[in-house]
Amino acid sequence: EADIYQTPRYLVIGTGKKITLECSQTMGHDKMYWYQQDPGMELHLIHYSYGVNSTEKGDLSSESTVSRIRTEHFPLTLESARPSHTSQYLCASTASRSGGYTFGSGTRLTVV
Amino acid sequence: AQSVTQLGSHVSVSEGALVLLRCNYSSSVPPYLFWYVQYPNQGLQLLLKYTSAATLVKGINGFEAEFKKSETSFHLTKPSAHMSDAAEYFCAVGGDDKIIFGKGTRLHILP
């Protein structure tokens, strides 16, 4: 039973389109994260948030943006999608570093 | 600062054989350590975690890991591999403000 939800699971869009990937969690976690992962490859942190109105860029430069206006919601937006954005995007949350992260099922994005 | 090194990007074992996935960590504070599993087109699922209680940690699906401070290791083992264990495995260490993930080890199970 997932406590963190990502939609859509799969998305194919054309170059130049604006898209928003949704991530919501029901656990009341303050800390939330977005990772980018190519198939079979390592995770790259692209954005994180420690609470409402708090957002930071991660270790990997990304053309995406995020917002956190509610604790449970942490959407990621691409203003103009490009083929180089084709990847899997994983959302995660945690209450503390000792508890580990809970991950969503991911969104696999393909930009054509 | 914290870091994680997973030895071997690919590991192959025969069905029924011992699974051993290696992980070494570096941490400037008492570490929290994790193993995650990822099946194709899925997110990561927590297998087990070490949080300074018992050094031998048991997780789901028959996996366990032993924390060895002197060796800065947290290797993952399973006595008998099953075909369903084929997946990507990530070791991770709890950093000051984020969890740091290793690059992952792909486990292949040979029939």
Q: How would you describe this protein?
A:
The complex is a heterodimer of chains A (112) and B (111). Chain A has 112 residues and is mainly beta. Chain A contains no helices and eleven strands. Chain A has strands spanning 4-7, 10-13, 19-25, 31-37, 44-51, 54-57, 65-66, 76-78, 87-94, 102-103, 107-111. In chain A, the strands form two sheets. In chain A, strands 2, 4, 5, 6, 9, 10 and 11 form a seven-stranded mixed beta sheet that branches. In chain A, strands 1-3-8-7 form a four-stranded antiparallel beta sheet, with no helix packed on it. In chain A, strand 5 (44-51) and strand 6 (54-57) form a beta hairpin. Chain A is globular, with a radius of gyration of 13 Å. The relative contact order of chain A is 0.33. With 111 residues, chain B is mainly β. Chain B contains no helices and eleven strands. In chain B, the strands form two sheets. In chain B, strands 2, 4, 5, 9, 10 and 11 form a six-stranded mixed beta sheet that branches. In chain B, strands 1-3-8-7-6 form a five-stranded antiparallel beta sheet, with no helix packed on it. In chain B, strand 7 (64-68) and strand 8 form a beta hairpin. The mean pLDDT of chain B is 92. The A-B interface holds A 6, 33, 40-43, 45, 48, 50, 88, 90, 92, 94, 97-106, 108 and B 32, 34, 36, 41-46, 49, 51, 88, 90, 92, 94-99, 101-104, 106.
Throw out a few tags for this protein.
heterodimer; A: 112 residues; mainly beta; 4-stranded antiparallel sheet; 11 strands; B: 111 residues; 56% strand
Main sheet properties of chain A: 7 strands, mixed
- Global structural class of chain A: mainly beta
What oligomeric state is this?
heterodimer
Mean pLDDT of chain B comes to 92
- Compute the separation of the termini of chain A in Å: 33 Å
List the helices and strands and how they pair.
The complex is a heterodimer of chains A (112) and B (111).
Chain A: E1 4-7, E2 10-13, E3 19-25, E4 31-37, E5 44-51, E6 54-57, E7 65-66, E8 76-78, E9 87-94, E10 102-103, E11 107-111
Parallel strand pairs in A: 2-11
Antiparallel strand pairs in A: 1-3, 3-8, 4-5, 4-9, 5-6, 7-8, 9-10, 9-11
Chain B: E1 3-7, E2 10-14, E3 19-26, E4 33-38, E5 44-50, E6 56-58, E7 64-68, E8 73-78, E9 87-94, E10 99-101, E11 105-110
Parallel strand pairs in B: 2-11
Antiparallel strand pairs in B: 1-3, 3-8, 4-5, 4-9, 6-7, 7-8, 9-10, 9-11
